[in-house]
Every structure is written in C-alpha cells, then in structure tokens.
Design a protein that fits this description.
63% of the residues lie in helices and 0% in strands. It has seven helices and no strands.
Length: 161
C-alpha cells in the first residue's frame, strides 16, 4: 500500500497535532512542539511501510516531542533542592476552583496526566496510548482510570461523571 502525499497528512491532521502539542506544554511552547513533531514526521515518513492509522502514528510523534520538551526544560532549569521533591504532594490541591479542570489534570502524576491527555485530547484508543507510553493496553486503561478517580475526588457531586 502506498503512502499518501505528506501534505494530505498535514491537511487532515494539523489541528489534532496542534491540540495535542498544546495540552501538555501550554501556549508558550505548543507551536515549537508541533513544529518539531511535523519535522520529525516528515523525516520518518518515507520509511513507513504502510498507511494504516497514520493519525495515531502522528499523534505518537507529537506526544514524544512534548515529552522531549519537558525533559529539555528539566535539564536547563534544575531544581535547587532535588531532595525536597520527594515530599511534594501528588494530589491536586483542594482549593482549586471547580471549573479549572486542566489545573487538576496538570497536578496528576506524570504518567497518568500523559495517559489522560493522549486518551481524551488526542482521542487515541488504549492500544495507541500504550504504544506512546511504552506500556500495555491494560496499563493504559489503569492509568486513565486512576487519573479519572483522582480527578473525581475534588469535583462537586455530579452524577454524569
């Protein structure tokens, strides 16, 4: 099966890449992450052996670029007292306003946050989330489930969650 022209991939999925780049890194770095994802995708595109699920492949490339951005930021701005990170809270603060869901998502443990972003912002199935996170689909389901349970802890009583 032959690959479609790369421009048709860009035309079909540029919004998805932009949204997924924005979710984990925010508005300041989102354009850089998206650009890096497109550059890496273009370089790898000729080596693909099939055209199945190109969207999932592209979103995986985007997620990896976002994680690379986080790693680079950590290296360039080391924490003054790394030992103090051990005692940092892992639960979202209880005084977060109810309407600020993304603040709560950002406060999740990193793997849970990444799984939620890939699943709901990237609209990937659990197999694709697992591939992006280098884990199993069962673990992907568990990460998303645990993240949702944590997010529900501080929400007002709602029956639609």
């Amino acid at each position: 099966m032959s690959l479609p022209p790369f421009q048709s991939l860009v035309d079909a999925h540029w919004r998805d890449v932009a949204r997924l780049a924005y979710a984990p890194v925010g508005p300041v770095a989102a354009d850089d992450v998206a650009q890096q994802a497109w550059t890496q995708a273009l370089a790898a595109y000729p080596r693909l052996t099939h055209a199945r699920n190109l969207r999932s492949w592209l979103l995986t490339v985007t997620h990896r670029c976002a994680m690379d951005h986080h790693r680079a930021a950590r290296r360039s701005h080391p924490h003054e007292d790394p030992a103090s990170l051990v005692t940092a809270p892992t639960q979202p603060p209880p005084d977060v306003p109810d309407g600020d869901l993304w603040t709560r998502v950002a406060a999740l443990p990193p793997r849970q946050r990444d799984a939620v972003v890939l699943r709901f912002v990237g609209d990937l199935d659990h197999a694709a989330v697992a591939a992006a996170l280098h884990t199993t689909p069962g673990m992907s389901r568990r990460l998303v489930s645990d993240a949702l349970a944590t997010l529900r802890l501080n929400l007002p009583d709602r029956e639609d969650l």
